[in-house]
Amino acid sequence: MKTDKATCSSKKKSGFKTVKFKSKKYGQICPFCGNVVEMTRRTFKIDITVNQRNLTTLVIDPHYELKHSDSMSDALVIELVGLLDGGDFFPETVSNGFEYYTADDLVLRGKKYRLVWLLEKNSLYLGVVNAYRRRS
Amino acid sequence: MKFPSQKELAKVRKKLEKAEGAIVLASNATPLEKLRYEICRQFVIYAREHDLKSKELAKVVGVDESLMSKVLRYRHSRFSTDKLVEMLAKIYPKHHLLLKVS
User: Fold this and answer.
1) Dihedral sign, Cα of residue A33, residue A36, residue A39, residue A40
2) What are the pLDDT tens digits along chain A (136 aa)?
3) Which of A40, B18, B22, B59 could form a disulfide with B73, with the two C-beta atoms 3.0–4.6 Å apart?
4) Contact A96/B3, CB-based, under 8 Å?
5) Interface probe, candidates B2, B3, B41, chain A, greatest A C-beta count within 10 A
């Protein structure tokens, strides 16, 4: 699995400081080599059926890394998305051709998570907008 | 493949912060929980196929919108199975329920 963080020469996962660029994009400063790595969306191949639509691509927005990087990772997001397989969901809101969904109390290894995700009409990808662990 | 702008996503994240969210069927669900989950799923499919909003579906079923919203999110603990079947009969009045044991 390739992430933005892996492009940093130190290849360490913790201790990154998040910065906001003037362009309003986010980046992370590696505490070991000082490199600034822009946080970009990652794409993975998947094979799941959601809302009776076969989805082949997963796009993960890096937003969760701003506050939840300690308890969340791309690998975990992929596992959580796997729990949606075979399900039918009602959108929380629809805007500009995108349907936004929230799945709550997703349980993995005894821990509960929340996933905010989207589907674009007539597209075969699922986009993860946010993901985090539920404490309560 | 396009993706919403960061501004749009920020707006959605804020909006959905307090949304109840849908429940996913647990891997250790009991047969009764599976049955009730399956009934709720029929409402989600019906709403999608008929392009209905929660409020519109509530009107068809004849229940309060807040109750319909719970069913569409699989939050069925407030409903008896009788009530769920009764609601289902409102959208499929001429259909029969088949029980399959496997």
Assistant:
1) negative
2) 334 444 444 444 556 666 666 555 666 666 677 666 667 889 999 999 999 999 999 999 988 887 777 788 899 999 999 999 999 999 999 999 999 999 999 999 999 999 999 999 889 999 999 999 988 6
3) B22
4) no
5) B3
